[in-house]
Specification:
The complex is a heterodimer.
Chain A: H1 2-17, H2 19-41, H3 45-77, H4 80-85, H5 92-120, H6 127-154, H7 157-174, H8 186-191, H9 196-209, H10 215-244
Helix pairs in contact in A: 1-5, 2-3, 2-5, 3-5, 3-6, 3-7, 3-9, 6-7, 6-9, 6-10, 9-10
Chain B: E1 6-15, E2 18-28, E3 33-37, H1 44-51, E4 59-64, E5 78-81, H2 93-101, H3 110-116, H4 132-142, E6 150-154, H5 162-177, E7 181-185, H6 189-195, E8 198-203, E9 206-212, H7 213-220, E10 223-228, E11 238-244, E12 247-252, H8 255-264, E13 270-276, H9 279-287
Parallel strand pairs in B: 3-7, 3-8, 5-6, 6-7
Antiparallel strand pairs in B: 1-2, 1-4, 8-9, 10-12, 10-13, 11-12
The chains are: A mainly alpha, B alpha/beta.
Chain lengths: ~240, ~300
């Protein structure tokens, strides 16, 4: 266990030493709050709360896709990765440390969003709901973490970065993260339930404001989790098989 | 009797269609300093990858003190410096050492390790900002963090200048003087001659020679005839000739005959000298390699 924390600590150090990565994942969601949410829904408590939850989901997805997808693919290309396998520890501490680092980075990217929501909008929620939202955040990070792992373990680093970028926008837009519940253009409303972003954001909405979730979106979210998990496991095994057997 | 620190028994390893190791058996006992020589693609790194648990043999067994290297337990007493310098660029020198230290039960104090490898003044520097030589030195130093019994160094001094290389040799010798065991690969024959007591020559996945330094030199059974002369006439039994300043070195299996033929040819020469071959020449003969595969160290 202490080795997991050691790996997490040094991986986190590596992340924060490249400030642009941290600034990117903290600044981008904060800016989207300031430019889109504050002027459009800032004055409406319900709208602002929903929009904040959407931005939170957006940030979780972005952090996971890039942190895991691009990060793992890049690490796989570095000689340090096989070197750590010659140390007296199995692959588990490094992997678990990576997940902890990802979760911590995701939580960090929440700080500016919540700060903007609390100071510049009328968004409100109750302490129990906020706590519920924090728990939901961990749940919501699952499909995106798996997606990131799948990208990171199956693709070379340049391709992984491109795929993360390509995946991220249609998922955000198509899942209805850019608009209030029920306010997205018709075709978005039609495809949204089939995207993992929709199920995730509905869970966030439900946590902060009691939104009634759509069973179809929940079922599809489960399907996405199973599918991305299968892809991630396959990718991880393939990578292990190629490089460490 | 305790099992050897490192042992390979009839080990075979393929990569697709390429046979990297072909029924290789090797034992490394306590206190040995073994030099692993071979041209590119001979299987040196594959053998090290098997010993350090990165790869599995297809057939045969690999063991560290009787344990499978793929179990973390077995790797508690080894240290590894991979061929490619492996450092996370954004971590500081001291942090890299501390990270590796966390994996071992009784590691060397960070300061002592850095002192030993001449890195003490760089402790606060990020590894990405170090020179190639400094990074290489740190990468080798990390192999010694866990007070290993056995160290694997894959081309440890590639990219180091002469001074840095000699400093690193001193650290290696100090480790050996304290009873440490080492398996070392190198492109610099001078390095193997300077450090190793025992030389294992690997070629096309097989062990071609396994002996002490003199034994390997003898095995080639070659002599080097050196003369100063303008043009070398055609001589039967001449394997290779090379020029060094005004001297010409002639490599042959039968020095007596070569000298006789040289005299009979009537060509003018002076300062005749017959010597045992260098490790490089022996190596080239044993492996049948091109000399371009090896870099005789310029010192």
């Amino acid at each position: 266990m202490s080795l997991v924390l050691t790996h997490a600590r040094y991986q986190f150090l590596e992340v924060v030493r490249v400030p642009i990565a941290v600034i990117g994942s903290m600044l981008f969601p904060a800016l989207s709050m300031i430019f889109f949410v504050v002027p459009n829904a800032g004055g409406d408590p319900v709208g602002a709360t929903y929009a904040t939850a959407s931005t939170v989901t957006f940030a979780v997805m972005m952090t996971c896709l890039f942190q895991y997808g691009a990060g793992i693919a890049e690490d796989r290309a570095q000689p340090f990765e096989p070197y750590t396998r010659t140390l007296p520890a199995g692959p588990f501490p490094r992997f678990a440390g990576r997940l902890l680092t990802g979760l911590l980075t995701t939580l960090l990217s929440m700080v500016p969003i919540v700060a903007v929501a609390a100071t510049l909008t009328e968004a409100t929620t109750t302490p129990p709901r906020l706590l519920l939202a924090a728990g939901t955040l961990v749940v919501v990070s699952v499909p995106f973490t798996l997606m990131g792992l799948a990208i990171g373990y199956t693709l070379p680093s340049k391709a992984a970065l491109a795929v993360a970028q390509v995946v991220f926008f249609p998922f955000a837009f198509g899942g209805g993260l850019m608009s209030a519940p029920g306010q997205a253009p018709g075709f978005v409303e039609a495809v949204a339930p089939f995207l993992p972003t929709r199920g995730s954001v509905e869970l966030m909405w439900a946590a902060v404001a009691g939104y009634p979730v759509d069973p179809l979106a929940m079922a599809m979210l489960a399907v996405w989790i199973v599918a991305t998990a299968a892809l991630a496991v396959w990718g991880y095994r393939r990578d292990e098989g190629r490089r460490y057997t | 009797m305790s099992p050897p620190l490192a042992q390979a028994i009839e080990v075979t390893r393929r990569y697709g269609d390429v046979l990297a190791l072909d029924r290789v058996s090797l034992e490394v006992g306590p206190g040995e300093l073994v030099g692993l020589l071979g041209p590119n693609g001979a299987g040196k790194s594959t053998l090290i990858n098997l010993f350090t648990g990165l790869r599995k043999p297809y057939s045969g067994r690999v063991m560290l003190s009787g344990l499978d290297p793929r179990t973390p337990m077995a790797r508690r007493h080894i240290g590894v410096a991979p061929q490619e310098t492996a450092l996370p660029g954004s971590l500081r020198v001291g942090e890299c050492v501390d990270f590796v230290r966390a994996h071992f039960p009784d590691p060397l104090p960070t300061g002592e390790l850095l002192e030993r490898f001449g890195l003490a003044t760089l402790r606060r520097r990020q590894t990405g900002g170090l020179s190639g030589g400094q990074r290489r030195r740190l990468s080798v130093a990390l192999a010694f963090v866990g007070r290993p019994k056995l160290v694997f160094l894959d081309e440890p001094t590639t990219g180091l200048d002469v001074g840095a290389r000699h400093e690193l040799w001193d650290a290696v010798r100090a480790f050996h003087a304290e009873g440490g065991t080492m398996l070392l690969t190198s492109h610099y024959l001078e390095e193997v001659e300077a450090l190793a007591k025992r030389v294992v020559v690997l070629g096309r996945g097989r062990i071609l020679a396994d002996d002490d330094l003199d034994g390997v030199r003898r095995m080639a059974g070659l002599r080097r005839v050196s003369v100063t002369m303008r043009a070398v006439p055609p001589l039967p039994g001449l394997l290779k000739s090379s020029a060094e300043g005004d001297r010409t070195h002639l490599l042959t299996a039968d020095a007596d005959r070569l000298v006789r033929d040289l005299v009979m040819s009537g060509a003018e020469f002076r300062d005749l000298e017959v010597r045992q071959t260098s490790l490089e020449e022996a190596f080239l003969t044993i492996t049948g390699a091109e000399s371009g595969d090896l870099v005789p160290a310029a010192s």
